[in-house]
Write a structure and sequence with these properties.
The chain is mainly β and about 280 residues long. Helix content is about 15%, strand content about 35%. It has two domains: about 150 residues, no CATH class; about 80 residues, no CATH class. It has a five-stranded antiparallel sheet, with no helix packed on it. A five-stranded mixed sheet has the order 2-6-7-8-15, with no helix packed on it.
Amino acid sequence: MEKEFDISRLTRADGKYTPWVVKDTPTLLSELELNNKEIILIVDHVKNPYGFLLREIIPHHSAQGRVDDEDFLITFCGACNAGVHMNPVINGKVHHFRVIGAYNGQAVFEDEETKSIWNHITGECMHGSMEGEKLEVTGLRMSTVGDEMKINPKLNMFIAGQSIKEKIMVLMIKVMLGKSKNWLPARFFKTMTEVDDRLPIMALGLAVQIGDTIKFYERNQISDGMKDTIDGKTITLFTGTVPYAVAEKGKRPFQLFMRWYGYNLTYPQGVLYIPK
């Protein structure tokens, strides 16, 4: 992330997005009638994994609640196509977050308690009284209904339901970022610094982190079973419906399936995979 936050590049949209406060009990994936191609965001590093439909997260940009006595915050930016799981507890107190605008072409969050501004991927406070604080961040696994029905049909799913307004918002994002369009509104570019031009800014790829090094693999350069090394550690990449990587002993390292501009502006020190 850039060293200094430039508040003049922040485009605010206060009150436009309402956070999803998760209070309902989950439903088993197998009990829901869903399209197999539906994308799911899954928290699977916990005792009882749980998931959310991507299309229900997008209008809110976040979901926050408590599962198995642990508080959680899920973030997702429909533009940069990235989101994470965070612990919203700071110094023993739960903070409540909502998206309040865009910075570097990505969603930025504000906590209701202090009105500080936070990066939605790194969990770092960029501006305000909490500057210097950093939320604990872990990865989200991105999958599909069809794939999960094969391996975990009893996955706990939180379902929000959508208003007409929210459905229209999701449709607009699909049109904006669809294969034939793939563009961002001008107001997003006003929030961005210069992006590394080695890839098109909207290129999708997999960012994989091992230790302090994070590396970006453009989607079209990933093949099933291809191997690479990050900080001397071997990883294996797979295409899948959503590309993913596994490290040694089959463990999944922190990874994000996201757009190049979001990666480059969030991790300017990051590495780009160059095929040999």
